[in-house]
Write a structure and sequence with these properties.
Elements lengths: L1 H25 L9 E9 L5 H13 L8 E5 L16 E7 L2 H9 L1 H10 L3 E10 L2
Antiparallel strand pairs: 1-3, 1-4, 2-3
Length: 135
């Protein structure tokens, strides 16, 4: 039984690392100097609506088709430890990586992004954006 638990732990640890591989391989640390990270948080007008949540998640995922997005992660608040520094009041977040400012500008103006705003903006009451570039 101990061998089975050990094998399962090794498998889960390996699977967790593999799930990070796409994000880690997108931008080798020593090669990309102008990587732009675009992190957006959405609060729903109807926070208890599973239908609105599903529509917003689907809308955000549709943005993955934009060619300048190097990596996208769409998520909802995790059930992590409650601490004063953790804000899990949002409904959906998107985390995107772009090679540079020009790639992010292309994304902002892209017809898919504009369509997303037109079709989904009625769902949210608040949006907060954090854009960062390498220090």
């Amino acid at each position: 039984m101990t061998k089975v638990k050990s094998s399962r732990r090794k498998f889960l640890a390996s699977a967790s690392l593999l799930s990070l591989a796409p994000a880690l391989n997108v931008f080798p640390m020593d090669q990309e100097k102008n990587v732009l990270v675009h992190h957006v948080f959405f609060w729903l007008k109807n926070p208890n609506s599973k239908e609105d949540l599903a529509k917003l998640v689907a809308g955000v995922k549709s943005l993955a088709k934009i060619e300048t997005i190097q990596y996208i992660h769409v998520g909802v608040p995790a059930s992590t430890e409650k601490r004063d520094v953790v804000d899990n009041s949002y409904a959906v977040s998107e985390l995107m990586f772009f090679k540079d400012l020009a790639g992010q500008k292309t994304y902002q103006d892209h017809p898919i992004h504009q369509k997303f705003i037109a079709e989904c903006s009625h769902l949210w009451e608040k949006v907060v954006v954090y854009d960062t570039i390498n220090a």
